[in-house]
Amino acid sequence: MSEDLREKNKKAAEKQKVASAKNEKKEEVKSEIYSADANDLRKKLSNKNAEYVFKLNKYLMEDGFKETEAKEAIDKILPEIVDNQIKGIPANQLYGPVTQRAQTIVHPVKKPKVTPFWASWIDTSLLFFALFGLLYGIVALTSKKTDPNSQTGIITLIVLSVMWGALLTWFNNQMKQPKDKRPGWGITIGYLVVGLVFMFVFLAAMTVVPTSINPALNAIGYFIAAVIAYGIRFVFRRSMGIKERSFF
């Protein structure tokens, strides 16, 4: 019994060794293909793939590519063609019809630009600054008396905008992820609740901060600050190429 088990283990180890050697050989060949000269790769093309490349070159030049541009575009995909050729996959199966591949090269689909967290944070914070500035201006305009414990100082406005900007940017980024990578709703709501608690604690703390440190503006001052913030946001979004909305 023990001898049979040893024999099975031995055979399994040998099979694993052979499989590992094959994989190493495949990786070696693949590495050689992707580092080879394009002219050498053209010589390795099967008749079917060589015809595909010939037609592809023709279509590219008909679409306005210069001869050198067409050759450069095709040279980039030659390693992939040869690699798949070894696996028994011809170019027309790999890329589809020649006309389709030519259109893909001539009119490549641009990957959507990913906005870094810090840029989205600034963008959203500026938006909140503008919204809060408008709100503070309305409050200042409708209030008859000045509250000595007012929380509507300029420092409060700045910090609240930064806090809300960070919280909403984080939330938006989570919602953009694939469903299988998103945190559960329990975790998401937990983070949001903690963020809101911090904000309420901050607002409560600002009531004891003297107006000399946290001065309040008049209604016109807040309206002007809101307009300036929105203008800065507009310029910032254009310079960073941000297309996404801050709110879903």
What's the arrangement of secondary structure elements?
Layout lengths: L1 H34 L2 H6 L3 H16 L4 H20 L4 H5 L2 H9 L10 H26 L11 H23 L8 H22 L12 H22 L8
Helix pairs in contact: 1-4, 3-4, 3-6, 7-8, 7-10, 8-9
Output the keywords.
248 residues, mainly alpha, elongated
Overview of the molecule:
The chain has helices at 2-35, 38-43, 47-62, 67-86, 91-95, 98-106, 117-142, 154-176, 185-206, 219-240. The chain starts with a helix and ends in an 8-residue tail after the last helix. It is an all-alpha fold and 248 residues long. Helix 1 (2-35) runs antiparallel to helix 4 (67-86), helix 3 packs antiparallel against helix 4 (67-86) and helix 3 (47-62) packs across helix 6 (98-106).
Quaternary structure of the protein: single chain
Helix/strand/pairing category: mainly alpha
Helical fraction equals: over 70%
Structural domain count: 2
For the termini, the CA-CA separation is: 66 Å
**Overall shape:** elongated
Tell me the radius of gyration: 31 Å
In short:
With 248 residues, the chain is mostly helical. The protein has 10 helices and no strands.
